[in-house]
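Section 5.1 Outputs to date
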Amino acid sequence: MLYFAYGSNLHHFQMKKRCKDSLFLKKINLKDFKLTFRSRYRAADIEPRKNSIVPGALFEISKSDERKLDVYEDYPILYKKYYFLYYGKKVMTYTMTKKTPFRFPTERYLNIVKRGYKDCKLDVTFLKKALNK
């Protein structure tokens, strides 16, 4: 199955450790969404926003990888699944169930996300914009 990562799962080493079958395919943009950080975990989330994009990574993952991600993402309590079409193919990602106010991420978490942006060669402008609240 196809999975879209936009937060700490962009970090290739961490993603491989978490999901041994995962395969990074390419970087893609999720249109009409914006990146933010929220909840007591101060983790990445996406929310609908016209004319905005969230850069991220497209991964191929197995069923067992999906089960591991479900546990990691605290599905369905903290995150729920969101599906979208990318060139006619169904892609799964996670979005937080409760849209709490913005919370600046911890330094440790943010460094993992920044490393992921490097791994996937994403434009950090969008990350900086999400942090400038």
